[in-house]
Design goal:
Nitrilase/N-carbamoyl-D-aminoacid amidohydrolase, 8 helices, globular, binds 3-methyl-2-ureido-butyric acid
């Protein structure tokens, strides 16, 4: 038995601050064509795929940042993605900054099926960084200033022959992200990331260690929930800021089966058999048989770690 979904991960190279959305969308459309030419069912783009990673820029008046946000999806500039997907018969998932009609700002990802219907929307829950300008940092990471935490939870959708979920960048570091989707039977998790190659608060940490963190959390999420994970980077040097590459496709054993080789626009493709999720879901990670929720209360009731008194 095999339920094959051919997945393309479309890594973006750097997007400079003054690169227009139209030029960016043209790059994404080109990668969508490459994915379709390899008969992919779905192409996954990165977090905030339409612009440079703007949360590195501080602006006192937050409303001045609204130009980085999309008020419509599809909108005038993003319509070519939907038109091309329809023509080529390919689904896609893409991250962007969302400004809602009632004025809310989210870091959002959508899932679009082959008929170009938006079947799923996810809004980033774990927002890293800080609200105010922090002079001790070599660069700023102001996601907490410009976005609200997502208000949709971690839903999954039955579409394209499987159970699909999404999360965004920092979410991948939290086992809760994957487990909540695992508890809904997720078979494929799609995510994009913009991750600095180095840590401005920990100068000695190597790029290799940070790449290890990047991969290990996706590999653990895949294995512990018996699902496929696709992680798609925005990579390379944006306005002097280095973002790590390492886009990958991970199987339900937690093994990386496809890995990007460059720091630029690059498409990697793998035939994912969703039935490969079945064995672990029925044995080691048969949640119904083995989970002990009576001991997990702290996870959903306490935020900070509270060690015992000295
Ligand atoms: N875009 C992100 O969420 N980036 C974070 C960085 C700031 C650590 C990440 O977890 O990769």
């Amino acid at each position: 038995m095999a339920r094959i979904v051919k997945i393309a991960a479309a890594q973006s190279g750097p997007i400079q601050k003054d690169e227009g959305r139209q030029a960016v969308v043209a790059r994404l459309v080109e990668m969508m064509r490459q994915a379709a030419s390899q008969e992919s069912d779905i192409v996954v783009f990165t977090e905030l795929a339409l612009t440079t990673f703007f949360p590195r820029y501080y602006e006192e008046d937050r409303s001045k940042m609204d130009g980085w946000f999309e008020t419509d999806m599809p909108g005038g500039v993003t319509q070519p993605l939907f038109d091309t997907a329809k023509k080529l018969g390919i689904g896609f998932s893409i991250g962007y900054a969302e400004l809602t009609p009632d004025g809310h700002h989210f870091n959002t990802q959508i899932l679009v099926d082959k008929s170009v219907t938006i079947v799923g929307k996810y809004r980033k829950v774990h927002l890293p960084g800080h609200v105010e300008y922090e002079p001790e940092r070599t660069w700023q990471h102001l996601e907490k200033r410009y976005f609200e935490p997502g208000d949709l939870g971690f839903p999954v959708w039955r579409t394209m022959g499987g159970v699909m979920g999404m999360c965004i960048c920092n979410d991948r570091r939290w086992p809760e992200t994957f487990r909540v989707m695992g508890l809904q039977g997720v078979e494929l998790v799609m995510l994009g990331y913009n991750t600095p190659t180095l840590n401005s608060l920990k100068p000695g940490e190597t790029a290799k260690t940070r790449m290890h963190h990047n991969h290990i959390c996706m590999q653990a999420g895949a294995y512990q929930n018996a699902c496929w994970v696709v992680g798609v980077a925005k990579a390379g040097n944006e306005d002097g800021n280095d973002l790590m590459a390492g886009s990958c496709i991970v199987n339900p054993n937690g093994e990386i089966v496809a890995l990007a080789e460059t720091c630029g626009d690059e498409v990697i493709v793998f035939e994912c058999d969703l039935d490969e999720c079945v064995f672990l879901k029925k044995t080691t990670f048969n949640f119904e048989a083995h989970r002990r929720t009576e001991h997990y209360g702290l996870i959903a009731t306490q935020t900070a770690a509270i060690p015992p008194p000295e």
